[in-house]
């Protein structure tokens, strides 16, 4: 069984009387432990694809199975639960809450999971340690460098033990050294068997992954494998909720 | 996600925007404060008038002539004879005059009364005596003076045995009235009592201004009022010859008026509370727009609609409750200040405090729903893209 599978996936938007096709006929199967780069020019449909994979958006055609369950046509709150339990997001602009310190930012998704405070703090500390930020847990995002902020965001994605990490140009706002640090963390996480899908414009970055998917005009143009998926080393406790 | 978590979030948001939170709550602070202060002033005025009427004497009935009816001393006597539920009747004449003693003068009100004055008006004599029945029937020139007159005319010295000049006649002071104090700007102690017969002679009239009666008990007062009315209507052979008011009726009327007045004041103040609520809604809408990205992030991380809804709703209720609490203190402060500075009676009622506080809470809830709903329904993708 694939961890993630989409079949004939499509997305249309209505802008006034016109219909715009953002995605069309996408078929993809992802196994546990894969490390995938999604590439394509802007407007190619890769953002729409990532939004659907991240359960922020619904497809208008086709099916999307996550962990064997069809999640294509769920209501907003069901999608919120899936995002919370199964998916870790990493954004280009970090998207940390400015008034919360690193620890509170990392613990934030766990609040919505309903975990008690002690458990949240414990998990958030662990996640921050995993990205090497255990000394800065009480700093506000504004007191951290871009690279450090992105590591906090990675910790936030990790804290919930997700099935899948979705990263939207995670190094796009970083200098090359911080970018390399982030990519090292991703490699390490993938080495532990965590599935990562990232969007990038940078061939250099794409080369570090094990599979590259290219989009153009809403269609998947190519899908090339450059490495084997990593088996799962750490037991993830993501599947708390029955999808 | 439990309620404590939501409260913490709301508190953190308040703290992050201290000035704005204070200004927003200010609308509610003034609203609640105004309601409490206005109602306390209204109820204070009502209490003042009630106390004043109660201090006029118990079970008292007042007969006042209407439309040219001429009441006389005989009418008072007749009412006392014919109405069994009445124990005392006192004809009453009043006018104002300049009173002289030695080289001092003082303008005061002269009340022509009888020996029943103390019983009917629940008044006391602090020294000396009230005039006797004989003195009243003989039109003697005797007077009983109030405390203010002693202060103004006799410079505080005992006036007993002194002679004062009223309208060119020399009166012997035989007694001093016990202090009653003043209310609503009228000094009850600024008065001189003389026999009603003497007063009639001075004014050159056989009429009386009104007749004061005392009913045997509060229960019998209403019966007495009906009886008196019918006797006088028969006597003058027409309707509406006199207005007969018992003290209870008077209290009732004034309380009703005061209640209307209080409700009106409270309602006007309530409008400012409503305006405060609109202020909350305004700021919450701004806040939702400002924090669109935050909402997007929270949603992406798994916040459900109701989580976001609660977060914003609790924030606005938090503002209104904090404003409400401060408003209660503010209202009590204003009410105290008014009673201290303007010497008005104010009554802070617990129900006004509770109702205005609950109203503030309701306002926060009501005006918080729309912004919270708006926040909860944001599309996470659009919200995340928001700058």
Task: Give an account of the 3D structure.
The complex is a heterodimer of chains A (243) and B (387). By secondary structure, chain A is of the alpha/beta class. Chain A has helices at residues 46-53, 76-86, 102-113, 117-130, 146-159, 176-191, 203-207, and strands spanning 4-15, 18-30, 35-39, 61-66, 69-70, 87-90, 164-168, 195-199, 211-216, 219-225. In chain A, 33% of the residues lie in helices and 27% in strands. A 6-stranded mixed β-sheet of chain A has the order 6-7-8-3-9-10, with helices on both faces. In chain A, strands 2-1-4-5 form a 4-stranded antiparallel β-sheet, with helices on one face. The longest helix of chain A is centred in the last third of the chain and has 16 residues, at 176-191. Chain B has 387 residues and is of the alpha+beta class. Chain B folds into 2 domains: 3-52 and 253-385, no CATH class; 70-235, no CATH class. Chain B has helices at residues 3-16, 18-55, 73-82, 117-120, 133-137, 147-153, 196-203, 218-236, 247-290, 292-300, 305-341, 350-376, 380-385, and strands at 60-65, 86-101, 104-113, 125-128, 142-145, 163-166, 169-177, 182-183, 186-187, 191-195, 210-215, 242-246. In chain B, helix 1 crosses helix 11, helix 2 (18-55) packs across helix 11 (305-341) and helix 11 runs antiparallel to helix 12. The interface between A and B is medium-sized, with 25 and 23 residues.
